[in-house]
Amino acid sequence: MTRNIVEIEGVSKFFGSFAALTNVDLTIGEGEIVTLLGPSGCGKSTLMRLVAGFEDPTEGEVKIAGKVANGTPPEKRPVNMVFQRYALFPHLNVFENVAFGLRVKGLGKADIADRVNRMIQIVQLEALRDRFIDELSGGQCQRVALARALVNEPQVLLLDEPLAALDLKIRQHMLVELKRIHEATGAAFLYVTHDQDEALILSDRIALVEKGRIVQIDEPHQMYRRPRTLFAAKFLGETNLVEGRIEAVGESRVTVATRNGLKIESAADDDFQTDEKVTLSIRPEAVRFVAADDTAACKARAVVVSEAYMGSRAFVEVDLGGLSFRVQLLGTSRLPRAGERVGLTWNPEDLVVLKR
Amino acid sequence: MLLRLVVFLILLFLIGPVVIIVLFSFHESQSLSFPFTGFSLRWYSELLSNDQLLGAIWFSFKVALLTSIITMVIGTAASLAWLRLERRGRTILELACIIPIALPALFLGVSLLVGFSQARIQLSIWTIVIAHTLLTVPMVMVAMRARLALFDPALEEAARDLGASTIGTFRRVTIPLMAPTLVATGILAFALSFDEFIVTSFVSGTETTLPMFIWSMMRRTVTPVINAVSGLALAITVGLLVVAWLIAVRRRSTANALANTDLD
C-alpha cells in the first residue's frame, strides 16, 4: 500500500446557502491518477480548488503530504495546477512561462535553464522555446501548461478539464501523452473531467461526483461493469435500463420480473428484498443474438427495429415486447435486418440490479 | 461614391484647420490669409523669446505630468478594485466614474472653487492638478474597462499556484499585463490635462496654464504666435502618440524585462 499524498476528510463547502460539496472523503496515493468525474456543476472543480488552495472547506480537512492544508495559501502548497483554458502568461514566451515557478522560488540561472530545458524536452516543445503564447496551437498550449506545472515537481498535479478546449483528434493524442508524462514524472494526478472516455482511459481510480457528493469510487473497469447507482450506470457508457420487481433472491443472485412479463436473472451486489422495485442495467455489448427458436440459449425474443453499421461495430435497435433495446455487435458479425425475429441472450454476471 | 465623398468632406473639415494653422505658423508675414508669401521661423522665435508664454507652457507641462502620474496610480488601484469586485460593486464604481464626466464643467469648476475656499485651501498648481485628476481618472477608467474585461483572473491564480505571493503576482503578472494600457491611459490623461480650460480657469488662482494664456492673448490681438503655439502643442501631442505606439510595439520585450527583474 502506497502512502496517501492527499487526504480529504469529511469536507463540505458552502457558497452562501448553496452546498457545493457535502461530506466528501477522498484519498490520492503517491503516483496515482484519480479522476473526478461528473456533469458540469456537480462540484468536482470546487473540490479541486480546495486542494489547490483557492478555496477553503467550510467543514472538514484537506491534508496534503500528511499536513492539514486548511488555510494554507496556494503558493505554499506542494501542488500545481493545469488550468482549464491553460491560463498561460501572454507576456512571456514558452521558456519563461515554464520557468515562472522556479524564478519565483529564486533558483539560480543555470539551475533554472537546466530544469526548464529538461521539462520542455519531456513535453516535446524544444522547437518552440522562444515562441509567445499567441503563436501556439491549442495542443501546444496544453503542453506548455503541463510543463509549467510539472517543472516545480509537485507532489500532486491538478488538471482541470485540461482537454476540454481541444479537438477530438488532438484530445486522444494528448491522453496518450498525459499517460507518458505521468510515467516520466511520477507525480500523482487529480484529474477533473466530465468526459467518461478520458476518465476510463486515464484513471487508476474514478470518483464519480453527483450534486456535491462522491457517489462511487472504483477502478475504471469496476465502475463501468458494476455501477452502484442508476446515476453511475447512466453516466458511464450506454446502457439499457429495464424497470421491474425482485421476484426471487439467491446467493448474490436475484431474479427480476419486468413489466412486460420477462424474468431476468442477474448478479446482485446489494441486499435486496422480494418485491422491491429495481432497475436492471444491461449494457448493449452484453447482449448477443441467437436463433429465435434456440430455446436452450434464448432468454428473450425480440423484433429488429433498425440497425446502424459503424465500421468496427454496429448497433441494432430491437423491440422486446414494448421495450426498446439497444444491442452492440462487432462490425464483423452478421447484421440482422429490420423486421427479423431474433433471440437474445446474455450472461447474468454482466447484468446489474440497481435500487430505485 | 456619395459615402466616400461624405467621408472625404468630414476629414477635410477635421484636418483642414490643423493644416492651415501649421502652415501659417511658418508664414513670414503677419497676414492670416492667403496668398501665402513665404516660409519663416519668425513666429517660433518670437514664441521662444516670450518668457510669459514659455512660462505658461512649462506650467501646463508640469500640471499635465503630475496629473498623468497621479491618474495612473489611482487608475491602477481602481482597475484592480474593479477586477476584484462583484457585479454590483462594479456598477457602483462605473457610475461614480461617469458623474464627473457628466457634470457640466462649469458646475464642476464652481463647486471645486467653493469647496477649496471652504476648506481654506490656497489655489495653486495642486488645486489645478486635483481638478484635472477628477476629470482624467473617470476618462481613464472608461478607456480601461474594455481592456480589463479581457483580463483573465485565472492568470493571477496561476501565478499564485506557481508559488508567487500576492505582491509577486502583482509585480510579475498583473502589472506587466496592464502596463501597455496604463501607459496609454497616462498619455491620454496628459493630453486631457494639457489643454483643459473651463475647470482650470476656476481653480487656477494666480497661475496661468497654456490654454488660459492663449485665451487672454487672443482677447487682446490675434497674432501668428498663436499659430506657432498651436503647432508646438500639436508636435508635443503627436510626439507622445509616437512614444505610446513605440511602447505598444516593444510591449513584449519590456514586459519580459519587467517580469524578470529580480527586485526581491
Notes on the protein architecture:
The complex is a heterodimer of chains A (356) and B (264). In chain A, strand 16 and strand 17 (313-320) form a beta hairpin. In chain A, the strands form 4 sheets. Chain A has a 6-stranded mixed beta sheet, with helices on both faces. Chain A has a 5-stranded antiparallel beta sheet with strand order 13-12-11-14-20, with no helix packed on it. In chain A, strands 15-19-16-17-18 form a 5-stranded antiparallel beta sheet, with no helix packed on it. The radius of gyration of chain A is 25 Å and the shape is elongated. Chain A is α+β, with helices and mostly antiparallel strands. Chain A contains 8 helices and 20 strands. The model of chain A has no long low-confidence stretch (mean pLDDT 90). In chain A, helix 2 (94-104) crosses helix 3, helix 2 runs parallel beside helix 4 (138-150) and helix 3 (109-122) crosses helix 4 (138-150). Chain B is mainly alpha-helical. Chain B is 80% helix and 0% strand. Mean pLDDT of chain B is 81; it is low at 260-264. The A-B interface holds A 52-54, 73-75, 79-81, 83-85, 87-93, 96, 100-101, 103-106, 132, 148-149, 152 and B 152, 154-155, 157-165, 168, 172-173, 176-177, 251-252, 255-256, 259-260, 262, 264.
Q: Got a strand count of chain A?
A: 20
What's the order of the H and E elements of chain A? EEEHEEEHHHEHEHEEHHEEEEEEEEEE
| Largest sheet geometry of chain A | 6 strands, mixed
Q: For the residues shown, what is the average pLDDT of chain B? A: 81
> How much helix is in the residues of chain A?
10-25%
Please state the overall shape of chain A, judged from the principal axes of the Cα atoms: elongated
**Broad structural category of chain B:** mainly alpha
In angstroms, what separates the terminal alpha carbons of chain B? 62 Å
Helix tally of chain B?
12
Order of helices and strands of chain B: HHHHHHHHHHHH
Number of strands of chain B: 0
Overall geometry of chain B comes to: globular
Rg over C-alpha atoms of chain B, rounded to the nearest angstrom: 22 Å
Radius of gyration of chain A, taken over Cα atoms and rounded to an integer in Å: 25 Å
Mean pLDDT of chain A: 90
The span between the termini of chain A is: 36 Å
Oligomer: heterodimer
Strand content of chain B: under 5%
Strand proportion of chain A = 35-45%
The main β sheet of chain B shows up as: none
- Low-pLDDT residue spans of chain B: 260-264
